[in-house]
Amino acid sequence: MSSEHLALAEHFHAAYGRACTGIWAAPGRVNLIGEHTDYNGGFVLPFALPQVSEVAAAAREDRMVHVRSLLNGETAEFSLDGLAPGVVAGWAAYAAGVLWSLEQAGHRLPGLDLLIDSTVPIGAGLSSSAALECSVVLAATDLAGVDLPAAELARLAQHAENDFVGMPCGIMDQMASVAAEAEHVLLLDTRSMSTEQVPFTLAPDDLALLVIDSRAEHRLVDGEYAARRAQCEAGARTLGVQSLRELTDDGVAPEELPARLPDEVTLRRVRHVLTENARVLAAREALRTGAYAQLGEILSASHASARDDFEITVEETDTMVQTLLSVPASDHVQPALGARQVGGGFGGCVIALIQADSFDGLLAAVQDNARRRGFTEPTGFLAHASAGARRLA
Ligand code: ADP
Ligand code: MG
User: Fold this and answer.
1) Which residues pair with 314 in a beta bridge?
2) Domains along the chain?
3) Each residue's pLDDT tens digit, 173-218
4) pTM for the whole structure
5) Whether the Cβ atoms of residue 306 and residue 265 lie closer than 8 Å to each other
6) How far apart are CA 373 and CA 182, in angstroms?
7) Whose CA is nearest to atom 12 of ligand 1?
8) How many CB atoms lie within 10 A of CB 289?
9) Is the pLDDT of residue 61 over 60?
10) How far is the CA of 123 from the centre of ligand 2 (A)?
11) Catalytic-role residue among 173, 222, 250, 309
């Protein structure tokens, strides 16, 4: 066991008085593009972060589960017997939900001792929740001797978040966490669940992907996410389609929508999903041909659509994108090629496609702007596409 894993193993020993059987990891993700398309049967293009949720685990002789997080020092205890939504609340519900979801699907589990640590920023729109779920689903299935394909692991983790935690998310976060590969973005068709690994290495072109946590007060009120989902479903009903994805297959042009959707808000929500699906496919083409200027424009167009049509951005992220795109060029900084808010919305992170050597200058410009406006100071890092969920030790 390498020294970095040893620390978690030692924490496990201190917590449970015995050795762990193994350590599993699952990453957070950045969605390059394809926002709020996953629950509409559409396309998404995420990649896995180097930041991961790690879980040290060992099976127990009984049906009890102990789950401890180093993040908050809390331990939750519950039995697999009688486990149901509502029985475990708070952060531990993400882990308990996964075990419930597995047993619901007919996989009999042993009791478990679990110790969790995470380097994924929490609540920043980088999916620390899916990272946690996917690390636990991997540990639990391995210890139970159950071998499931990636798409099924992702579905079980999503089921946990939807029906145990109560967050009606799509499949993207979990699928990115289990199925992403290093140096690639994952093109996922959320209707067929078919995937394609698209090479994504920016460094050879002196480019980089900047991730900035706006640290805007978290306003992803569950209600807003669910409301967007309901509006999309209402739009699909009015249009007489199963899911908004069909509009893409039918070659519907955005200009045709106003005549078919009399309600202005529904029109804008549907238009976002239709144009966003087209942008995901255009982004894949731009990546294939190395057309990075075009990729940048597509990212910025996605932000405009999220702001104007889907209305999920906030002043902090809007002005951040604006700053990234309009920084005056100088010897040591070039404006970003494109930028957009990522994640469910209402704050969280902004990503920008940038010249690699503009990192310091762009981050400083964004921080200056935040200071002037009295916003919390944003933090930033460069993200490279990393490996999906795996056993570490
Ligand atoms: P995001 O997925 O964007 O980070 P969410 O609100 O969906 O934001 O998920 C964050 C929640 O996940 C936290 O509030 C906490 O309940 C749970 N969580 C994630 N990682 C951990 C961890 N290592 N320890 C405890 N709770 C965690
Ligand atoms: Mg989440």
Assistant:
1) none
2) 3-197+387-391 (3.30.230.10), 200-383 (3.30.70.890)
3) 999 999 999 999 999 999 999 999 999 999 999 999 999 999 987 6
4) 0.95
5) no
6) 38
7) 129
8) 10
9) yes
10) 7
11) 173
